[in-house]
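Predict the holo structure. Ligand: IPE.
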Amino acid sequence: MAIFKKAKKSDDNLSIKDIVLPEHIGIIMDGNGRWAKKRGLPRTAGHTAGAQTFRRIARYCSDIGIKYLTVYAFSTENWKRPKEEVEAIMRLFKDYMIEAITDFQDDSIVVKFIGDRTVFPPDMLELIEKNEQDSKDRDGMVLNIAMNYGGRDELVNAVKKIALDVKDGKLDVNTIDAQLISDSIYTAGQPDPDLIIRPSGEYRTSNFLLWQSAYAEYCIMDVLWPDFKSEDLDKALIEFAKRNRRFGGV
Ligand code: IPE
Ligand code: IPE
Ligand code: MG
């Protein structure tokens, strides 16, 4: 487990150079719709703006040396939204994935997708797999893009996988432990998130990284995602450095 150098709470002039950064950050990219509404624009304009923010912030995280970044882009519940909105979001995913393959060839970022990908059409699936394949041997930040992701869905799938192994005699029930569950979910092999940032001011997880966030520090911020700047990320990082993480100890 990483040792965190704690910033002193009295220190108001900290910069991110003075603190130990979290290894894994999760971001719930929320507030696109409200951002658009405030400007009298359709919700889809908010998603377009949010996709630009995602590009900037992912780059920034990689530049400052974050090892893992997980962004919540589309939940298993977001299919309830109007068809035009869902289609617009899917088009933005596609644009990003095409761009990532062609423009990011010399990049160090490892791109992974977490969530139930079986529902995506073949062309999307191909882009997902190509992005993962092309970037898998890089040595930079791991960027997990959560698309059709739900924490409960992830656990249901893990339970099914484990139950099948028990049924087939490959696994003894008594050997099931927390580590096996961590190894059976989408983020297998990765450290749990240290910090989860939710812009747009909502105090809920909305089904994001349920298992992995057991000891994550939450930072709820009032800014809407399309307005989120690198300075806001710095603020969250400094706030994180001041927290006293105890993991159940004293
Ligand atoms: C987050 O922004 C993007 C997705 C959930 C896909 P929202 O679209 O939820 O924005 P608000 O919460 O309505 O403002
Ligand atoms: C969570 O935001 C999902 C993403 C940001 C992708 P929602 O906007 O879907 O969450 P609720 O409905 O406000 O809980
Ligand atoms: Mg929302």
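The chain has one domain: 19-150+194-240. The first helix runs from residue 32 to 38.
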